[in-house]
Amino acid sequence: MSFTTEFSICPHRFNAEVIDFLGDYPFAENRWPVVYLLKETGKKKLSAYVGETVDIITRLTTHLSHPDKCKLHEVLLISGNKFNKSATLDIEANCIKYLSGDGGYKLLNANLGLRDHDYYQKEELYSNIFRSIWEKLLREKVVKHTLRQIDNSDLFKYSPYKSLSEDQTKSLILILKSLLDDNYKSIVIEGGAGSGKTVLAVFLFKLLHTPTDDFNFGAFGPEDMVVADLVLQLKSKLPNPKMALVIAVDSFRSTVQKIFRNVEGLNAAMVVGPAGLRKNTYDIVLVDEAHRLRQRKNLGSYFGVFDITSEALGFDKEKNHELDWVLKQSAKNILFYDEFQSVRPSDVPQKAFDSLKNSVTTKTEYLYSQFRVKGGAKYVKFITCLLNGDVPRNTEKIKIKNYEFLLFHDLQQMIDQIREKERTEQLARTLAGFAWPWVSKKGKKKVKRDFDIEIGTIKLKWNSVNKDWINSPDAIREVGCIHTVQGYDLNYAGIILGNEIGYDRERGEIIIRRENYFDKNGKNGVKNTAQLKSFIINIYKTMMLRGIKGTYLYVCDEALREYFSKYIPVFGESDTIDTAKESVLKPYVNCVPLYDLSAAAGSFSEQQRVSAETIWYPVEDGIAISKDHFACKVVGESMNKEIPNGAICLFRKYSGGTRNGEIVLVALTDRQDVDFGSSYTVKKYFSKKKQGDDGYWEHEQIILKPLSTNPFYKNILLEGNELTLLEVIGIFEKVL
Q1: Lowest model confidence (mean pLDDT) among 60-64, 88-92, 137-141, 442-446
Q2: What is the pLDDT of residues 54-88, one digit of tens each?
Q3: Does residue 600 register a pLDDT over 70?
Q4: For 25, what's the count of Cα atoms within 13 Å in the CB-facing half-sphere?
Q5: Could you please report the per-residue DSSP string of 393-446?
């Protein structure tokens, strides 16, 4: 089914003339719900605003009088006969979230009131309508990135335009009440990796930098009204609060600074390292990843900055730590903390946070939800027991629906799987513990070799950059460490557990080997073996909570590998369950037919026929499918901007209507040789038409356009008699 006929997008200059135009606009009558996008044009950095209303004339008239919105140049009216209030609220929220993640606009919208809610036909109809709306905005160059590209971006994942969970909303209300209460100075929000601490921090920062005039009170639910009332009280008390977001880890701080540059009302200077606090005092300081605040131990090149800051703030450099700096330089502070992500002796000791939490001037809340890994609480609990050696002996191998958790006995197979996931899913990376020295590090006087990790015949290199390694060009060919991934999301993580960690069969417990641990700043001065073990265990647990869709493990120590294999499915074994696709396949419910077309993302493929035997291919939950859908494998690099080589793609059978601008699967059939089958290709479709002698329009030329990073691929032009041999088989919907 095509969803392009279920909506229309009507552009108009945003000025007084648009009100006259709306007199003839069919959806302006009868209070019909409409979504609209106001935007600037012709500037490098554009502002925009998204809204929905049942009274478009009154709403746009109001915006024309607004000091900021009246400066916007164009309005896009998005409407449809099947739109209802629930649908337009949902489409509006999705437009706001994805426009924020697209990076082309600074949104004038407030971030309070966005909701994920269920309603009739949300998945089977309106989610598809939104995808079609976005595809049209992409074709019209209103937006720059596909939904999939945005889903994988940090700008989207840490955007302040998020629908908060019940846990997060509860914590937000507690924070706001505590900021208003003079009896409290500190608020500690605890939560494990992936519990949404960073999202809450960024959301709160944006919320307190949004003019209350921009709040859409009409769309607020009961909890939103509570939050809005608290924000109004806080703004009355602190009209222009001086705030800072402190992030100790350099790499992640750079990423959050990029996010702040793209959010209206925020700027990168608001995100600072701990030493940046010495320059100012603040009304409110938020600290993300507070467990990575440092004390004066094993600081390497940071010793100088630490000492200068300690002296500037009046502390004894030998006795203070960065938590002291936060407490001194802020009237109020909010710390997002997880004691189980402390990975170095330089981290502020847990007892300092315990002392703070026990203070009568501190309020504490805990985030229980798991937002990152699809394995959920079951997976988090399991790996905690696994790494602590607490898995009951008779426990069967873990099976987690919709999450790939596998142990590999062959490292090359794991690396190959990660690279395949990078090609099909993106954001798949190989990680490791500190069981190998960093000999390839740039800047050393003599680099004896260009690799660091050697396991059998396999040679690998540590991360070549420290900042934003995950998004660096060479990341897929390198190995990252804890410091390159803490705070980040991956789709898949392949983790190498080195020989610094092992298993004692006699005692039945995990052990660590100090001599095989090569993070000097991670072990120097740590005399307590239990403390070092805690750091190493925390490193691996944190890395095992990076992968949203799956985690792969390779274990160097034989005894530890044997211990893990008792409880974790092993890749390649006959009883291994593909946990991402383990449910029973139900045709056109959770799977579609996979046709062996070998569609060529290049020129037309060799002539082939559709296989008579049906193979069913699983489709993830949340993707609406019907009997018009099918899948096939697309090979070649000519569509690699949208479709990776070898990807299995979902298509919708073509049943009529315009194809212009769509990515299509087409067949070129020689009707005189039909028994040999058809030749297939996937390209973006464009056509030129002319009016024939009989008055009817007919194709003059069809252009099949590649979307490739390789300039080798050229347009395929069909003219004259060739046009009769072309048949559009399906419309591309997504990579599976």
Answers
A1: 442-446
A2: 999 999 999 999 999 999 999 999 999 889 888 89
A3: no
A4: 26
A5: TTPPPP--TT-EEEEES-HHHHHHHHHHHHHHTS-EEEEE-S-S--TT-TT-S-
